[in-house]
Prior knowledge:
The chain is of the alpha/beta class. 38% of the residues lie in helices and 24% in strands. The protein folds into 2 domains: 2-165, Rossmann fold; 173-326, ANL, N-terminal domain (Rossmann fold, 3-Layer(aba) Sandwich). It contains 13 helices and 20 strands. The radius of gyration is 21 Å and the shape is globular.
Amino acid sequence: MTIMLAERAALYGDRTAIVAPEGAFTYRNLLEASGRVASFLLAGARDLEERPVAFMAPPGFHYVAMQWGIWRAGGIATPLSLFQPRPELEYTLGDAAPAAALAHPDFAGRLKPIAAGRGLRFALSTEAMEHPLKDLPRVDVSRRAMILYTSGTTGRPKGVVTTHDNISAQVASLVQAWEWTAEDRILEFLPLHHIHGIVNVISCALWAGAVCEIVPEFDAGKVWDRIGQGGLTLFMAVPTIYMKLIDAWEKAAPAERQRMSDGCRGMRLMVSGSAALPVSTLDRWREISGHVLLERYGMTEIGMALSNPLRSKRVPGCVGLPLPGVEARLADDAGAQAAPGTPGEIEIRGKNVFLEYWRRPDDTRKAFRNGWFRTGDVAV
């Protein structure tokens, strides 16, 4: 799918793909920039052959050009958090053992010393994006595409490895379920070292030929201002962001409130995920926006697996049914199907499920039972 992303981008040509702090860019611009990054990374080699490449950039065009460039060169894209202190970045680079590290100029000061200390090839995104275009390898969809590091709540963070095929399944499922089209327009402000922003927002938008507007960070006032301008069709956020937007709306003047609410009502879908959504927040948001937030369930290892329906009734406090191409079940302690009405661990199976934990075969083995991925979450 990441390779298909490039193929689909060629179909969209001069349509706008990304609006970011750097400007507005077409799909053709994105193909050229990512091709230059790929050519730079190859440095005369034919293929990166699934070697990780770490990269650090603020949300924007450079981020996507680097991510696509790594994929198109045959590497494994490993995005780094903009918020981690140096010891955690050191850990990630040590664990991933990348072949190279790329940074936007704004973050060169953070990444370059660490890369130098590890003897890594380091370059600025601006340098890579100016490199002459060369022939690129054909990358099979079964190959590793991305490493995302989990939060590490039960130990040191683990690198979750997804293949191009895994990402393809995750994106295609959401595009089908949420009916993405080339006429859609979405605002991206979520962190881009997590799956929510990478897959649900940017990758789905670019797969569909839609427009993704990217802002550097979430700011309630600025986000409301953009919503009030109209033109957005989808909106995706986490519960804490909806709470902050509610607070900003309640502090606004009546005329401004009306403009904010009208902007929401012009959209076709608003989604909440990554944490439980309090029913009180759902109810207040419905009063403000006219939308019943669509709740869904996912995690780094599986992408999105469950979702409330796009067109029929959504149940508050529930995360819905399996998305297209996803199998889900509740299992008891012995690994058998849990009886109806009794709690069980959510287990997921399908092409959306990750390949492995990076260089952790024992952890990978323990994460599966009879071919099902064990989420560790319990539901009824």
